[in-house]
Every structure is written in structure tokens, then in C-alpha cells.
């Protein structure tokens, strides 16, 4: 009996696998799925290009309501939304080839409630991402610090935010984990340059040289918002006198300005003979007393 049942099953399976109608149906379904995927990719690309072109047209209009940072953020976000929507619709279309999608959607209420309890973090990510954009906390291209991560914002999505550090690492953070943000790109920065001179040097002369150098370099840096200011003696160190110079500059240009000012001041100090302190060691040799020397001999 068992051998007969097995033989019958094997015969039915063979007939099914060798039925040309079955393979035609498989081929038709496969072609439909491939067509749906290709169509989804093309539609996503066309919609993304349309969004980019729409913002380019806004740039040419005389009335510009959004800043470049804001526009870049919205372009990235809309591209993210388009990807989610198009690929989700493609998934449902492919699924309809195998199951009754209407019956599935009819029961989605109960299933959605069950999924909702398990996807609270996802909902929280989306809501937090919405408020980040709505409140303009930061935008694409801004230099920010979030917890221990610091770098330029590459993308703000519905669920995650991508931050690229200056060393090249890409940090992907769930939006709900962003509790505190330091944005360095909103307001002007302050370039701070501390210049050390030896105690033996003339402080007034050094300050005068620094003043002449920074004002001579000002036309070379359009990033400077205000003229550099020599504040004076900042600190008296163990072997140095520190003179501080500050300059208000455009956001995130203070590193560049500080480096250039240090270079120019050092070059002028070398010309004027102003010594920059370096570690020194003085050795004292204690001479022996005459009586002790006579006793030894």
C-alpha cells in the first residue's frame, strides 16, 4: 500500500513538472515580477529627477522661500519617501501574483495592530525625523555633534540620519536616538589663535607685530566677518607668555583661518627675531668645599 501511494505521488509530481502549461504559467509570473521590478526602478528614478528639477526651477525664481540647506534636506527626504512608497507598491503588486491581496488587506487591521505594538521604535524614529525637519534643527550639509559622533550630515531620512565624520566614517543613527544636537553651521564661528613668546621678549613689541600681521592678512580671507582682534596676554605659563587673537568668521571656517594666521605670525616673528619658547634645561654643578677637597687628597 505504501509503495503504491508513493508511486502515485511520484507520478503526479512528474506529470506536474512536465506539464508545459505549468511552466508557461511560471514563465508568465516571472516575467511579470521582472517587469514590476524594472518599472519600479524606472518610476523611482523619474520621480527623483522630477523632484530635483522642481527645486532647480525654484532656485531660478525671484521669490526664494527656502535656504539651500533646507532645499538639500527636502530633496534627500523626498527621495527617501519616493523609494519607500514605490518599492512598497511594487511589493504589494508582486504579492498579488501569489495571494489574494484584497483578503490580505481586509485582515490588515488586526495584523497592523499586532505589528504596531512591535514597531513602536520605528514609529518613534519617523516622528522624531519629522520634528527634526519641521523645527529645522539641522539640515543636510551641516556640521553637527550628536552624542559621541561628529561630522557633516549626509542625509536625513524617515527613519535614520547619516553623519559622515572628517576621517570618512559614515555613522547611521536612528532618529529616535538623537536626543541632543550641537549644530556648528548655523551661526558664525570664532577663530582663536594663542601665540606664545618667551619671557625675555618685549610683550608690547610682540603684540604690535601680531596686530600688523593679522590686519595685513584680513583682505586675503573673505570668510572673516569682523577684523581680527588682539586681546592681549591670555596666560602666563611656566616658560611662556600667551597672547590671544580672535576673529569672527563664517561658520566652520575657523580651523582654516586659525592655521593661516599662526603661519603668518610665526613667519613674521622669525623675521623680527621674536623667540617662541621651547623647553630648556639648566644644569648646576655644586663645587666641593675646600676643607672636604683637602681631606680627600
Automatic annotation (TrEMBL):
Domain of life: Bacteria
Keywords assigned by UniProt, alphabetized: Cell membrane, Membrane, Transmembrane, Transmembrane helix
Keyword Transmembrane recorded: yes
Membrane-related topology note: Multi-pass membrane protein
Residue ranges of the TM segments: 75-95, 101-123
Compartment annotation: Cell membrane
Coiled coil location: none
Domain Mechanosensitive ion channel MscS: 122-185
Ranges of residues in domain Mechanosensitive ion channel transmembrane helices 2/3: 80-120
Any Pfam family: MS_channel_3rd
InterPro entries according to UniProt: LSM_dom_sf (IPR010920), MS_channel_1st (IPR049142), MS_channel_C (IPR049278), MscS_beta-dom_sf (IPR023408), MscS_channel_2nd (IPR006685), MscS_channel_C_sf (IPR011066), MscS_channel_TM-2 (IPR011014), YbiO_bact (IPR045276)
Domain Mechanosensitive ion channel MscS C-terminal stretches: 192-276
PANTHER family listed in its UniProt record: MODERATE CONDUCTANCE MECHANOSENSITIVE CHANNEL YBIO (PTHR30460)
Family: Belongs to the MscS (TC 1.A.23) family.
Protein's UniProt name: Mechanosensitive ion channel family protein
Organism of provenance: Fictibacillus iocasae
Amino acid at each position: 500500500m505504501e509503495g503504491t501511494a508513493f508511486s502515485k505521488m511520484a507520478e503526479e509530481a512528474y506529470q506536474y513538472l512536465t506539464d508545459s502549461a505549468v511552466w508557461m504559467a511560471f514563465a508568465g509570473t516571472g516575467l511579470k515580477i521582472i517587469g514590476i521590478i524594472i518599472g519600479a526602478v524606472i518610476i523611482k528614478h523619474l520621480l527623483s529627477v522630477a523632484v530635483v528639477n522642481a527645486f532647480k526651477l525654484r532656485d531660478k525664481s525671484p521669490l526664494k522661500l527656502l535656504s539651500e540647506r533646507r532645499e538639500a534636506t527636502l530633496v534627500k527626504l523626498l527621495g527617501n519617501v519616493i523609494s519607500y512608497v514605490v518599492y512598497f507598491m511594487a511589493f504589494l503588486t508582486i504579492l498579488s501574483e501569489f495571494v489574494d491581496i484584497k483578503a490580505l488587506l481586509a485582515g490588515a487591521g488586526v495584523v497592523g495592530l499586532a505589528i504596531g505594538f512591535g514597531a513602536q521604535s520605528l514609529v518613534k524614529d519617523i516622528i522624531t525625523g519629522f520634528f527634526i525637519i519641521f523645527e529645522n534643527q539641522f539640515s543636510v550639509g551641516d556640521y553637527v555633534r550628536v552624542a559621541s559622533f561628529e561630522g557633516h550630515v549626509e542625509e536625513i531620512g524617515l527613519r535614520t540620519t547619516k553623519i559622515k565624520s572628517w576621517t570618512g566614517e559614515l555613522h547611521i543613527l536612528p532618529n529616535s536616538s538623537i536626543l541632543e544636537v550641537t549644530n556648528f553651521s548655523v551661526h558664525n564661528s570664532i577663530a582663536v589663535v594663542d601665540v606664545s613668546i618667551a619671557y625675555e621678549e618685549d610683550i608690547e613689541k610682540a603684540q604690535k607685530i601680531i596686530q600688523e600681521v593679522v590686519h595685513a592678512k584680513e583682505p586675503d580671507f573673505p570668510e572673516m566677518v569682523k577684523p581680527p582682534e588682539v586681546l592681549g596676554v591670555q596666560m602666563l605659563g611656566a616658560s611662556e607668555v600667551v597672547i590671544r587673537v580672535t576673529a569672527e568668521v563664517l561658520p566652520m571656517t575657523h580651523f582654516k583661518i586659525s592655521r593661516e594666521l599662526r603661519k603668518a605670525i610665526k613667519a613674521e616673528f622669525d623675521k623680527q627675531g621674536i623667540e617662541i619658547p621651547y623647553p630648556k634645561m639648566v644644569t648646576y654643578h655644586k663645587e666641593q668645599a675646600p676643607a672636604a677637597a683637602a681631606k680627600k687628597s
